[in-house]
Every structure is written in C-alpha cells, then in structure tokens.
Amino acid sequence: MSMRQILGKLLKNISPAMYTSSMLFAYCNSFEKPSADKKLQFEPLDLKKLTHEYMIKQSILNAVNSATQTLTVTYMAIADLSIEYRKLLNELISLLEETLTYNVSDEHWDLIVELRNEMQHKKEKLLKLSDSMEYVYTMATAASQLSYLYEMENLCNTLLQRIDDAMCKMKAEIDSNKQLEHTYWYIQGQCIKGSKEPTEKQ
C-alpha cells in the first residue's frame, strides 16, 4: 500500500472527530456583562438607626435570645438526667427489696453496688446543673429587667413567662427526685436493720 493511500485512510477516520469537536465549540455562549437593571441595588446605610439606644436594644435582644436558649437547654438537661436518675433509684429499690425477702447471691450485691455508684454520679451531675440553673436564672432575670427598662415590654413579659415555666418544671423534677430518694433511703435502712438482727441474735 502506498503512502498516499495510508494517509488518505487516516484523514478519513479523523475527520468525523474533528467535525464533532468543532460542533461542541460552536454552541458555547460567551459571558456578557450584566445590564444596569440586573446589578444588585444596595440600600444606603441609615445612620439615624445607629444610635446608642438602638444598638443597646439590639444587644438586649441578643441577650434575651441567649438567656432563653440557655434556660431551655439547662432545664432539658435537668429533666432528662432526672428521668435517668429516678430509673436507677427504682432499680435499686427493687433490688434492695429482694434482699429483704430472699437470700440473694454475691452477683446481686455487686449489681447493687454498681447501680449505686452510677446513681451517685448522676446525682452529682444533677447538683451541678441545679447550681448552673441559679446563674441562668440570674442572667435571664437581668435580661428581662433590661428589656423592661428600654420599653421592650412584650419581650420582657415573654422572657418572664419562660423563666417561671422553666423554674416550676425544674422544681417538679427535683421534688420527684427527692420523693423517690426518701423511699430509697427507707428501704436501705430496712436492709441495714435486717442485716444487724441475725448478728444480735447470735
């Protein structure tokens, strides 16, 4: 086969690809500058709003939002932890009651010790959260007083309602915890008393 025939076949095979490539570039649109109507229009800054009172009110609004969020999150943490705490107390009460009726195994006592340690850990966390709630209450109260001072009464009233609601619900959780604790202490006292009686008889 001559060189001319070889080149002819190569060009014949390549030409469709070149045609296809040229078609790809033929439909590309060039970017145009946006017209004046399409440009973003920025409103000029209103310097009259940038007064000290305006900026203080904005800061108070941020403080109220922050206080509300902290109040809600802290209460939810107390509520969730209280549920776990009371669950452990109920389990301990059941296990201790069984020791008053049956001769339980060492594994039973080991489980009591394990749950008691876990319960104590959760109680310490609850005490920390309760202490934190006092500071959150102070912060939220200060924010409500500031909002009232700057005539933001609706904001003040809303925050006060949330404070009262959170504190009432927290008190209900703590009261429920204490009530179950008294039951636990009573059963624990019965167990201690029952363990001493056989020793005294001997």
Automatic annotation (TrEMBL):
PANTHER family with a match to the protein in the record: DIABLO HOMOLOG, MITOCHONDRIAL, DIABLO IAP-BINDING MITOCHONDRIAL PROTEIN
Keyword line: Apoptosis, Coiled coil, Mitochondrion, Transit peptide
SUPFAM superfamilies, A to Z: Smac/diablo
GO cellular component, one term: mitochondrion
Presence of the UniProt keyword Coiled coil in the record: yes
Main location: mitochondrion
Residues forming coiled coils: 78-132
Entry's localization field: Mitochondrion
Gene3D superfamilies for the chain: 1.20.58.70
Top-level taxon of the source organism: Eukaryota
GO terms, biological process: intrinsic apoptotic signaling pathway in response to oxidative stress; neuron apoptotic process
Protein name: Direct IAP-binding protein with low pI
Family: Belongs to the Smac/DIABLO protein family.
